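Illustration: Precorrin-4 C(11)-methyltransferase.
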Amino acid sequence: MTVNFIGAGPGAADLVTVRAQRIIAASPVCLYAGSLVPQELLAECPEGARVIDTARLSLDEIVALLIEADAAGQDVARLHSGDPSIFSAVAEQVRRLEAAGVAYTVVPGVPAFTAAAASLGRELTVPGVSQSIVLTRVSTLSTAMPEGEDLRSLGRSGATMVVHLGAHRIDQIALELTENYGRDCPAAVVAFASRPDEIVLRGTLATIADQVKAAGVTKTAVVIVGKVLAAEGFPDSYLYSATRERTTH
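Result:
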């Protein structure tokens, strides 16, 4: 039997892969990450499935349920918001399953930052403006950032900066990024991306913190900073250039 770690996307129930839907519909056990996973997606579970909200469970309790299902010969759909490769807490579950000899797969999902970019109507890698994206977060009381991964250090590249899980520290983010990006650098915050209650805020590093606080945004938000958010007059990509040699097959 298999534990399937599934990226449940940023919030909209239809922003999941066909593979994810198929596995959910066939799994007699489903563990999901609380309010971060839409109820409409849980409706895909088969009749009689054991559906468990893990929001209040410890890591040991969650892993015990996964191992228990495997021992009973039951496939598991383990739903995480966004994509399992980014800030998902999948790594520690996988480590324990490997130690227990339990098979697993990982199904990618739509990460929150791409849903946020879609809501903003912006490409985050614009020719001649920025070809790199930094995905990061800020330090919290529970989990410190590794040495050298503070915003000031990461911001030296001038790349498009995407900060997850940091709306409650928007003042700190704006202050630390201003050093390398400047007060007038475009900034945006998208909360609950793709959901009916989505909030989209646009401004600069000088103004975005006040907008976030006025809107009451404290969590489930992505902060995006970079010139790409207001890019104009940039060169066209070579991908579709008329000067590019193309084959007929």
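Reading the tokens back as a structure: The mean pLDDT is 94.
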